[in-house]
Amino acid sequence: MADKKEGKTTSKVPLKKKVEKKVDKATEKEKAEKKVERKMEKVTEKGPEKGLDKVQEAAPEVAEGTAGTEVAGNGATASKATEEFVVEPMELPPFEIIIGERMSPFYFKFQFKNVEYSSGRNKTFLCFLVDVQGSGGEGLRGYLEDEHAGAHAEEAFFQQVLPQYDSALHYMVTWYVSSSPCAACTAKLVEILKARKTMRLTIFSARLFMWEEPEIQVGLKALAAAGCKLRMMKPTDFVYIWDTFVENEDQTFTPWEDCQENYEYYQEKLADILQ
């Protein structure tokens, strides 16, 4: 029995120590919580003042920023308004037709080449011969060029080269052009030929201008019906232009290899249009 009692008493001693340890841990937690509360109180006492200071310092900057954006916005609108009223559209100089007796050999070889696709050839070169029968004076000879930016070369000829007309005289006009007339020019030429009954016009073209377009075909037909002779330039015609209208410096001109072939191609197209 004694052995049992002693066993019970020995088993109770560790329980008391565990309780004491739990109590000690609880007190330590309470002390730690109190320290945290004290720190929090200190922070809350100092925090609002510092927070207010920061807000007060930031507020003017924000106000200044918004004011700056408003000023910038007003300035931008003001500048836009001034641009709308001050800036004026640029006026380009008037279009000028170049007239001369002989052209550059480079222009001739490039602009008059009778290729099928005339890429980069945005000018019209017109070489002219005018023989006025009954006037007793010498005829006219030269060339003019345009850039399709104003009056075309065909119209400019009658404005600057042959503006006057006398019904008592007979005019024989021959053109050698780098490209056949456009629809607008054919319509004007028809009107001129109808008004000038004693004038005969012959046009030799190196290329056909947009010959697939229906309006171009109608214009060429109307021009032929008005009495104008339309021809494509043969290799011999290119040699004649070189000798007569180009600054050749006594050099000879040899037509390019496919000149005859291209002539036949365009001549066939022109014949189909005029039939």
Automatic annotation (TrEMBL):
Probable C to U editing enzyme whose physiological substrate is not yet known. Does not display detectable apoB mRNA editing. Has a low intrinsic cytidine deaminase activity. May play a role in the epigenetic regulation of gene expression through the process of active DNA demethylation. The keyword Hydrolase applies. One of its GO terms (cellular component) is nucleus. It comes from the Eukaryota. GO terms for biological process: cytidine to uridine editing; mRNA processing. Homotetramer. Belongs to the cytidine and deoxycytidylate deaminase family. This is mRNA(cytosine(6666)) deaminase.
